[in-house]
Amino acid sequence: MRWLVLVVVVMSAACTPVRVPPGEAVQRPILEADALVARDGARLPVSRWEADTPAARLVALHSFRDYRGAFDQLGPWFAARDVSVIAMDQRGFGDAPHPGLWAGSDALVDDLRDLIAVLRREDTDTPLFVLGESMGGSVAVALMGGEDPPPVDGIVLAAPGVREGIPVKPLWDGGLWLAERIMPRFAVTVREDYEGVLAPEAVQRFRHDPKVLRRIRADTYAGVVWLAETASLRAASVETPMLVLYGAGDRTIRRVAICHLVRHHATGAVDLRIREDWPHLLLHGPDRERVATEILAWMNGERHEGAVHRECADSGH
């Protein structure tokens, strides 16, 4: 009987999803030249592109599997147009601690909060915006829709990770919950090739950059899905002005979920832009500078908030 108990305990431990949460808060977050040192002392690498005379600052959060190198093209583009960009490796990605392992939704949200707090201490006057792509968008929504959101002038969401209203959601959630407990360490290698979809340099980066995560564990994938769920649940509490960018042919994020996000904004200060030719990773498409131009115009006050209902009504959602 003791052996049976031991076997059950060992098997249960082997099937526990791995999470690498932050340690205890031991310091006030600080921003060094090349990293955010978070409240638990973890170093999260950053890249900064500083404008000569910044009219605004933009915190940039990468998508799932990616890292701060996602903004190597757009960072200098914005800096040349008076917007300083700060891009950070989120925990579990790029050069941040424990690449490939999930730190937890709260950890990613708290790291963004820490970065915003440090930047606000540096400069309280220059407008501060957050740009989140896919998973990065989930983090931004989860923070701004949670308790005590930080002072931010606006959030820009590029195909954000949200999932309200998707078909057979309970079945999908049940299967995912079971998978992360039965085989959390099971991993697949992502072989998606973006040839003809993204800009040539982005295609090469996703093919060859060793910092792009290609081996995905089941528990890590489940973690990013639960993060998207958290963002969806908190969407109705977001009061910060929001620009949402989405490609009509996106097969990663459902249009119905995007419409739920924008319709439930607490104040209605939402500008939704849907384009037929935008891919899911629309910040890396062949026309990314046109996308960036739309973002810049919105940050400068060019808003079309009435387009929200029209875009979603046209889709039948």
From TrEMBL:
<dbReference type="InterPro" id="IPR000073">
    <property type="entry name" value="AB_hydrolase_1"/>
</dbReference>
<dbReference type="Pfam" id="PF12146">
    <property type="entry name" value="Hydrolase_4"/>
</dbReference>
<feature type="domain" description="Serine aminopeptidase S33">
    <location>
        <begin position="53"/>
        <end position="286"/>
    </location>
</feature>
<dbReference type="InterPro" id="IPR029058">
    <property type="entry name" value="AB_hydrolase_fold"/>
</dbReference>
<dbReference type="InterPro" id="IPR022742">
    <property type="entry name" value="Hydrolase_4"/>
</dbReference>
<dbReference type="InterPro" id="IPR051044">
    <property type="entry name" value="MAG_DAG_Lipase"/>
</dbReference>
<protein>
    <submittedName>
        <fullName>Lysophospholipase</fullName>
    </submittedName>
</protein>
